[in-house]
Each structure stands twice: as C-alpha cells, then as structure tokens.
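[retry 2/3] Peptidase S28: previous attempt timed out, resubmitting with same input.
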Amino acid sequence: MRLPTVLFLCFTVIITAARSNEKPFQLSRAHLLYGQSYYGLALADSDLTPNYFTQKVDHFDDSNSKTFSQRYYFNDQWYKSGGPSFLFVGGESEANPNLIQNEALPWIVIAKQANARVFLLEHRFYGASQPTGDLEVASLKFLTSQQALPDINDFILGINANLSLTSPLWITFGGSYAGSLSAWARLKYPDTVFAAVASSATVKAVVDFSQSLDVVYSALHAYNPKCADSLSSGFGRLNELVKTPAGRDELTANFSLCRNLENDDSDIINYFYGAMISNYMTTVQYSHVNIPSYNDTLTIENLCANQLKGDVNGYGGIISVTDWLLKYYGETCVDINFDSYISYIKAGTAGTFGGNFKAWFWQSCNEFGDFKSTNSNATNSIFTRPDVPVDYFIKQCVTIFGDVFSNATVYANIDKTNACYAGQNFNASRVVSSNGSNDPWHVLSILQANNAELYPITVAGAGHLADTYPPGANDPVALDTVRGKIRNHVLQWTSAGG
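[retry 2/3] Peptidase S28: success.
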C-alpha cells in the first residue's frame, strides 16, 4: 500500500468460496495489499523485452563481491536526440512493463512531450530481481530501502556509460513506496537524479499508524456525517458481541464468516475486526480513483448508501456493507483464518506473489511500521472500540521472522528510518509530491514546502495515487489541474536542464 502494504492484509476482507469448503488463505483483492498502484494492466499485454543489470548484493560491504541480475525494461519509442531519461522506480511487486508503455498514463504523456527515454527498474527481492534466491532472514538483511537507493544510482550511472551520455538528465517517477524511493533518490543522489515526482509517497515512518483510520472518518464525515457517526455505535455493538459465546455465534451468522468465531483468541478476534474495518478503509482510500471497480462502484457514496440501510445504531449498516461487498465479488463468506494467513506469509518463496508479500512484510517490520491499530487519540474516531493494538502487528513480525524482531527493535528500526531520510523535514529540491486528501497515507507524506523548489500538492477528495491514472469521468474537479501542474514542472525541469 505504502500497500500496500502487506499490513493492509490485516485490514483487508479476505474471502473464500464457501463456508462448507474453506480453502487455505487466499487473496481475493490482492492489489489492495500493496502500496504500489494497481493499474489493471496485464503483464502479458506488453511486448517489451526484459533486460538485466548487474547489481551489487551489498552496497555497503566492500568485501562482499557478490552480484545479482536486476531486471529492467526500456522504451525509447518517443525519444529524440537530446531528450531526457525518465526512470519509473519499481516498488513492492513484480515490475509491470506496461507502466512505461501505456500511452494513457500521465507520465507517458509527459515522456512523449519531453522526447524522453523511459526505463522501469524492478526492486530487489521482488519479481525476477532476486539477490540471493531465497527469503531467509540472513538474506532479507539485504532488502532495505537503503540498499534499493544505490541500486537506482548505480543503474543510472551504468546506463549513462552504456549509452555514452555526456550530459544526462534523469527524472525519477514513483507512486506510494516507489514514490518514496523516487523522492529519496533525489535527496541522496542529487548529482545523479536531476528531479523527482513522488505520488502518494510517505516520507515519515511510524510504528503505530492509527491516524490512517482518522482520515477514513474525516472522508466519510465530509460526505455524510450520519454515515460516519453510525459506525461508532456499530463497532461498539461488535465489540460487545465478541465477548460472549452467544454474541460470537451471532457475529458468525450475521457476517457470513467462513468458520465459527468460537473462542475469544485475541489474534482471531483482531483478524475479524480487521476484516470489518477494511471494508471502509479500502473503499475510502481508492474511492473514485480511475481503476476498475473503484472509479464508479466501490465508492464512498455507495458505501454510505449501504451503511445507512441498516438499523439506526449502525450495527446493521456494517452487516449491510459486508453483504454488499460479498455479493460484488461473488463470494459467500468472510475468511477469519488467522493461522492460514501467518502460514501463507511464512511460506512465501522468492519470485512468487507470496514471496513479494513476505518481502514487503519484512520491510514493514524492519523499516517502516505503518501498522494500522485502533489506538487513535482522536475524540471522533469511529474505530477505537474494536481494540486492535499495535502489539498485535509487532507480534506477527516475531512469529514470521523470529527473534530478529521484538517490540524494542521494531521501534528502533523505524527511528533509524526517520533519521536516515529526515521524515517530513524532507528538504530536497526539484521534487513534486502529490497526494489526495482522502488517502490515509497522505498524512505521512511531504505536505509543506521546506524549500522554494519543493512542490507539495494535495487534491481535495482524491484517493491513493489518483494522479497517476488516466483521467476519468468521476475524477475530482481539481485532479486534472494537478496532473497539469506535475506535467509543467517536469517539462520546465527538462527544459532548464537540457
């Protein structure tokens, strides 16, 4: 998210086909788990040939001479002599070459106008770019943003040498975590990266990201205060029912759970709460973003219409919203199998979807946190009564990866990340940072101009990565204007640097 994060899973409705034939953990809406944008572009649609760059496994140990092949894609169909080079930074998933080929995407529109070469560099440990070939803890120590940034720098320098570029001008692009890398590449390697575009990019790491749910409340309240306020009493009722055997039986039946909620195990209860909360969080985050389903159906308006169909205390509304989403996805029950979820992540292997999932979980535990607890201090929070503590997530880090993590190490790791990149005191120049006000992640992004050439832009009513998609009929009014501002900044940079 960021996905996406993998921690999104804990707040994503996981649905299986039938209660009588429960399957192991499965991902019905996998794109929601990742921070990187879901573009709805099939990998098979691209005819671009993959290329490979020889990259160091460890940029910080001169005694380690090991290398790996990092996959990248290259498109020069719009390039004209003297044009710049654009690098789309890969994030926490397999590289999709359509991102540098689809002419409807905003950065490709800019590339055509700027006569640019376009590159896509896959992130280490995702897709085919595997430094060690496994995801053991001893190998995952090489999976960090601090290793990924010199990957970007060395790749650019290598392409400069291969193409004999004497006055290269590189601009990086990225969204969500990849957007963070785009901004940080400009920060750390200003002599290599001339400018950067960072969409929905978080620059501040937090262990406890309960603030994300406050944004969900604000977005719902802005649309319809009754919709937002009904959730507080509704989740309060959920919290009472979960405490007794009779109440858990009622929840099992009312919410079409794939298995009985038959004990008060805190992990299972928290996983159930996460499934319910995700209905609201993911819909708000992507509402009206121009991607399938969210551009016209899974919207705040439809969410609230279903929420307000229920009883006056909000509990019936939560049931109505769950039924709406089950029917929309053609599913019959909601998965609450916490053990299968943990087993799925632990079993992830390099180069697979499950492996990508495990790799991002590692990065969350090791660098970024962003665990979506319900520990909000906001007086108007609608999600405080389901008690999903931050320790529930830290415990998963320990369960999956072992004693390399603990409560103390996770907090210390996140402090190191902020010390490395300066958090929201980010101060690189020639960076444009775009966000949507409905996107929970925007509160961790670049929101103020710390210098005259840092350009933060927030679009009222827009969702996660909304500016990175082609214009849509249901876009917020200001969104196309923001796309134009980003385009103008980039074209000015290419003109000034050329």
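[retry 2/3] Peptidase S28: The chain has a mean pLDDT of 90.
[retry 2/3] clearing retry counter.
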